[in-house]
Amino acid sequence: MAIKIVTDSLSDITSDLAKELGITVVPLYVRFGEEVYRDRVEMTTEEFYHRLVHGNVLPTTTQPPPGDFVNVYKKLAKETDEILVIVVSSKLSGTYQSALQAASMIEEKCRIEVIDSQTVAMGLGLIVISAAKAAKAGANLDELADLVRKAMPRSHLIVYFDTLKYLAKGGRIGKAKEFLGSILSFKPILTVKDGEMSPLTRVRSTAAGMNYLYNFMAGFSKIEALAVEHAATPDEADGLVERLGSLYPKEHIYRSIVSPVLGTHTGPNAIALTVLEAEKA
Questions:
Q1: CATH architecture, domain defined by 4-153
Q2: Distance CA 186, CA 63 (A)
Q3: Is the pTM of this model over 0.70?
Q4: How far is residue 164's CA from residue 176's CA, in Å, rounded to a whole number?
Q5: Of 46, 53, 200, 240, most Cβ neighbours within 10 A?
């Protein structure tokens, strides 16, 4: 019986890719006033960013309750007796606690391993994809859990932000708060360090931001996987992928759009690059 892989919607794995690799994605929730939507399920990313920019209600977000994970575990337990769950950093969301709590509520004879990835977006997504491919190749649960833990320090996510306003309002700014109140013409670039958002640098323009992302990727000698995602700026993302194509086969670069729940905190016009560094021989 193949091991089943579960993640949450903050992995930014597209539905097509999840289907292809047999990954189950548990959505978080985004709320506009009294209206609640399941992330990437009941509201498209395009609709979301339009409302975020043009609407007068700022959205809020919540993690899935344990019951959402229980339902997924029960369904998968009919097909397997081992489940690996890899979720967003516990410092950014309560999703890990929900996934863990749900595992203790399952009566079915099924081993469930829950891992806090300590990252988010495609920083998490590339780790999940790597685990799903290994599961398909026949790795056992202990091997997969080991693979994930070894991949975590090799997953490098950096994000160019147009503004930190949304991150600050959502309370997810972490150590990047030192960038708040800085000269408005500067655009911040953040990374994830020790499970929370952390400042890297500031640039003066989008072009300078894209140069920084390109040079960051160019600094790695061996890359296992690469991803580019955007928040409502497909043209900039396309341009970055074209440039990265001179260093890495662009047909192998994973593409995604920052999910509505994440977009609530990044705001529009963010662009993220994730490098999954190859294991050193």
A1: 3-Layer(aba) Sandwich (3.40)
A2: 32
A3: yes
A4: 9
A5: 240
- The domains of the chain are located at 4-153, 154-277
Rounded Cα distance between 74 and 17, Å, is: 23
> Tens place of pLDDT for every residue, the chain, 281 residues?
789 999 999 999 999 999 999 999 999 999 999 999 999 899 888 889 899 889 888 899 999 999 999 999 999 999 999 999 999 999 999 999 999 999 999 988 999 999 999 999 999 999 999 999 999 999 999 999 999 999 999 999 999 988 767 766 655 555 555 555 554 568 889 899 999 888 899 898 999 999 999 999 999 999 999 999 999 899 999 999 999 999 999 999 999 999 898 888 888 889 999 999 999 86
3-class SS of residue 75: helix
Among candidate residues 90, 82, 88, 121, the one with its CA nearest the CA of residue 3: 82
Q: In this structure, which long-range contacts are made by residues 12-16, counting pairs with CB atoms below 8 Å and at least 24 apart in sequence? A: 12/121, 12/122, 12/124, 12/125, 12/229, 12/256, 12/257, 12/258, 12/259, 12/262, 13/125, 13/128, 13/129, 13/256, 14/255, 14/256, 15/40
